[in-house]
Amino acid sequence: MSRLPAFPIEGGCACGALRYRLNAPPIAVYTCHCTDCQKLTASAFSMAMPVFRKDFEVTRGEPATWLRKAASGTVIPQRFCPDCGTRIFTEPPGGPHSVTIRPGTLDDTGWLHPVSAFWVSSAQPWVRFADDVLQYEKQPTDFMPVMKAWKAWVEGG
Ligand SMILES: [Zn+2]
Ligand SMILES: [Zn+2]
Fold first, then answer.
1. Ion ligand 2 — residues with CB under 5 Å?
2. CA dihedral 126, 92, 105, 143 (to 10 degrees)
3. Ligand nearest to the CA of residue 36, numbered in listed order
4. What is the 131 CA–ligand 2 centroid distance (Å)?
5. pTM over 0.70
6. How far is the CA of 87 from the centre of ligand 1 (A)?
7. How confident is the model at residue 1 (pLDDT cuts 50, 70, 90)?
8. Which CATH fold topology does 9-148 show?
9. 157 has pLDDT over 80
10. Could you tell me what percent of the chain has a pLDDT over 70?
């Protein structure tokens, strides 16, 4: 039994100028509590949903780009709506085959279940994590456990 919705699924920015479609299941869903994500979301943390680029398409509008320089020096392009500013997806470094959707922009967010939390060392002090959430002090060096946790959750484990 899969806990995923039927694909394709769609999403878009707050004003509707930018729309996208995802044709196949994501690779994982996690949260990031780094201070950059707090700033970028104007909130406490971000949700991230890496997907295969071949499964993802922008169906309306043209995203604008801001080149974010991470603490490591890596440049991570951020794609957002030029009209309302909603950040829709980012281009992960060294990952030409994937993009990371900001899944709060999905039309239906009810099924989302982050299985891991990154940068818990800078999480806001009131944030609590469920027992089954894989926690990382910073960025995980190995993404495989996150993908495994995601797969287990999808299959109902
Ligand atoms: Zn917009
Ligand atoms: Zn972050």
1. 32, 34, 37
2. -60
3. 2
4. 21
5. yes
6. 9
7. low
8. glutathione-dependent formaldehyde- activating enzyme (gfa) (3.90.1590)
9. no
10. 99
